[in-house]
Write a structure and sequence with these properties.
The chain is mainly alpha-helical. It has helices spanning 4-18, 41-46, 49-63, 67-76, 79-99, 102-118, 134-155, 162-178, 188-198, 206-216, 223-239, 242-248, 256-273; strands spanning 30-31, 120-122, 128-130, 282-283. A hairpin with a 5-residue loop joins strand 2 and strand 3 (128-130).
């Protein structure tokens, strides 16, 4: 096909964005022996690059409204120098725990748990916090899952049934529980109720606005990639509930209809690029090396 080289080149660019080649990283191969089955809702939702990026940005913006989550990022992250790396690590964790061999998924969870156990600190008001606090991890889990799901619904499957939405929360609950989050929602209604229960504890201060501004102006590389990234960041902010967007109080660089239209265009472009990609196949156990292309 005459356009196949262009599709391959675009896929390789995306691979380089999400994988640190110097550290030997590769895309997660889809395997039938993953933690989730190939016909799971999680496979469907977590497999779209653009909706996962939009949901990831929105989830991060929601998470940092919790003072302890913000403190954890502020105290123990190199976000000022490497926000791209933080977003990339989140994407890698989701890909491995969804699609890679179950052992690789469990190993990824174990690594995160080991890191969490070591981290803690004190909030500006003197309140101590631990990153491993189950209640804190529950906020991170619910905001992340509902953001991924809502991005998928808005930009890929507007007619998604409530049963499938509930199925997504029920499936991904196993990851939340493995990360020691508590409580963990198993339906959309439970997720929405849990988020509402946290709202009295949420805050937005100068540090919140600084981190959010860094997320929104994130650059990755070439002008074309940065333009697409800017669209995704705006779509992530737009995906937030009205109350959360108001708390962030970030300037809107694009009108909402334009931001959503551009995000759909980016999504369609990458969906086209990944038609026929090795990333869409389910690989047997003996295939261990990423078939780049």
């Amino acid at each position: 096909m005459i356009l196949e080289p262009a599709k391959v080149a675009l896929r390789r660019r995306i691979t380089d964005i999400f994988n640190d080649a110097e550290r030997g990283e590769r895309p997660a191969l889809r395997r039938a022996d993953a933690l989730f089955a190939p016909d799971s809702v999680a496979w469907r939702v977590n497999g779209d690059i653009v909706t996962m990026m939009i949901g990831g940005v929105s989830g991060l913006l929601l998470q940092m409204l919790h003072p302890a989550v913000l403190a954890g990022v502020w105290d123990h992250s190199d976000f000022r120098a490497d926000m791209h790396g933080r977003l990339r690590r989140t994407a890698k964790f989701i890909a491995v725990t969804t699609y890679d061999h179950a052992d690789a998924g469990r190993a990824a969870v174990d690594r995160v748990n080991r890191i969490h156990r070591k981290l803690g600190g004190t909030l500006p008001d003197g309140t101590p916090y631990r990153v491993s606090d189950p209640d804190l991890l529950a906020w991170v889990h619910v905001t992340e899952t509902i953001s991924f799901l809502d991005a998928w619904i808005r930009y890929a499957e507007p007619g998604m049934s409530r049963a499938d939405q509930d199925g997504y929360f029920a499936e991904t609950a196993r990851i939340g529980e493995a990360l020691h989050a508590d409580p963990v929602p198993r339906t959309r209604a439970e997720a929405e109720a849990l988020i509402q229960s946290y709202r009295p504890r949420l805050r937005a201060d100068a540090r919140t606005h600084e981190v959010a501004a860094m997320v929104m102006r994130q650059t990755i590389g070439s002008p074309a990639v940065d333009l697409a990234a800017g669209v995704i960041m705006q779509a992530g902010m737009d995906l937030l509930p009205d109350w959360a967007r108001a708390m962030h109080d970030q300037p809107r660089s694009l009108p909402r209809p334009l931001a959503r239209g551009l995000a759909r265009s980016v999504a369609r472009t990458l969906q086209w690029a990944y038609e026929g990609s090795p990333n869409r196949e389910v690989w047997p156990d003996e295939v261990e090396v990423w078939p780049r292309g």
